[in-house]
Amino acid sequence: MTHHSLEPVHFSWVDIMACTYCRHYIIVGTHAAREFCQNRESPFYDPSSPDYTGTDLTTMQALSGCEKLLFNGNKILPGVFKSVPQDSRLRKLPLLEVVVGYSAEMDLSTTETVAELTRKQQAQYDKLLKILKTVDGQISTEELAKRMQSNR
Question: Which domain holds residue 56?
Answer without folding.
Answer: 13-149
